[in-house]
Design brief:
By secondary structure, the protein is an alpha/beta fold. The protein has 14 helices and 13 strands. It has a seven-stranded parallel beta sheet with strand order 2-1-3-4-5-7-6, with helices on both faces. Strands 10-9-8-11-12-13 form a six-stranded parallel beta sheet, sandwiched between helices. It starts with a strand and ends with a helix.
Length: 377
């Protein structure tokens, strides 16, 4: 089968990593799977023309809105994988929600990474509730699978670069620490507002003044140009906080492996591949207490959660102002415990590794997508 795979490939985000991994699964069983960036297309007619010209037999896409709106006129079967912002953010827009509902009705299958995504879909599109179910025992490839929407956790694959130099990485990042071992906290994200990389900058800057061994490195690509300028300006005036451009995945995995902890401060997440990769690399995670992160991080068990999100609507700004200072202190106190209590840190790391091996097996994920691909035939 010749399959077109639409995903957000530029700038690089977690969806790109997911798409590349799934594409590899599909190609490993002999199908032709062509990855194309959603940003290349301005209309559904452009995608329809491509499908006709290249004789694609089916389409797979990540992101129910960004990818889905391009397939409303599709004449070939397609499957959809939730991206995260589609269900967590775009669904709040009535027009986008209407488009996504139409896409869902025509899709051959839908994949949700978390139970929270599943529940949101059921809430907004009741007709989907009869389709969505927890992934059953996966049949061998070649068996006809049920026509159903699937809940499948993301698989984890980490490949740290063998030639990576931690000292060189720190020096190039601007971290200078003579005769002391630094505690490096790594925040990996594309520079966009939904990732909120600036949330902890003031707290970290104040903490660094008292404890020069702690440093925060924000690493990732520019996604929103105007917001990137804000981040650059803020980091420039902060102490112990550094901004580093994106790295190849194997170098990034090596940097994560050698860091003291990995941080996630997102306002909204589908399922963070960075958190899962940190767990797989035996690095403790400190993550913002939001539904997507709670789906994979159990507080003081497989990681640490900080900050209870503010109320929505008219109270959001007031609530955020009231709680921010206290929650920054919460983050610092949790971090200090990781530093001072080695047994606590090792326990979290061990349980997190056990969790990803049990629930985020790339082998299980691979077999699920083999089955779903067969459902497009």
């Amino acid at each position: 089968m010749k399959l077109l795979f639409l995903a957000c490939l530029s700038p690089p985000t977690g969806n790109r990593t997911t798409a590349q991994r799934i594409s590899g699964y599909i190609q490993s069983i002999g199908h032709v799977c062509i990855l194309r960036d959603i940003a290349e297309f301005k209309s559904s007619s452009q995608v329809s023309d491509l499908i006709t010209e290249e004789k694609f037999e089916a389409v797979l896409m990540i992101h129910l809105y960004k990818g889905g709106r391009l397939l409303l006129d599709s004449s070939v079967p397609y499957g959809v994988i939730f991206g995260g912002t589609d269900i967590n953010e775009d669904i709040k827009d009535e027009k986008k929600r209407e488009v996504m509902g139409a896409v869902l009705q025509k899709s051959r299958f839908l994949v949700a990474f978390t139970d929270q995504m599943k529940k949101i879909a059921e809430l907004h599109w009741p007709f989907a509730s009869s389709k969505i179910h927890v992934q059953p025992q996966v049949p061998r490839y070649g068996q006809k699978p049920p026509n159903a929407i699937t809940l499948q956790f993301q698989g984890v694959v980490t490949k740290p670069c063998a030639k990576f130099s931690w000292g060189e990485f720190l020096q190039n990042s601007g971290v200078h620490c003579k005769n002391i071992d630094p505690y490096i906290f790594l925040l990996v994200c594309g520079l966009r507002q939904v990732k909120d990389p600036l949330f902890l900058v003031d707290a970290f800057s104040a903490w660094h003044k008292k404890e020069p061994r702690v440093h925060l490195i924000i690493i990732g690509p520019e996604v929103e140009a105007a917001f990137t300028q804000q981040v650059e300006a803020k980091v420039k005036s902060a102490f112990g906080v550094y901004l580093v451009s994106e790295k190849p995945q194997e170098e990034l995995h090596a940097a994560m492996r050698d860091s003291f902890a990995v941080v996630n401060s997102s306002i909204s997440e589908g399922m963070s591949s960075t958190i899962l990769e940190a767990m797989d690399l035996n690095v403790p995670v400190l993550a913002r207490n939001i539904p997507g992160n709670r789906a994979i991080v159990k507080h003081k068990n497989t990681g640490l959660l900080f900050f209870d999100p503010p109320l929505s609507g008219e109270y959001q700004l007031l609530q955020r102002r009231f709680k921010t200072a206290g929650n920054m202190r919460e983050f610092v106190e949790l971090s200090k415990r990781l530093i001072s209590d080695t047994y606590f840190k090792e326990s979290i790391v061990a349980k997190a590794k056990e969790y990803v091996e049990k629930h985020h097996s790339w082998n299980t994920e691979r077999e699920t997508y083999w089955k779903l691909t067969a459902n497009l035939l």
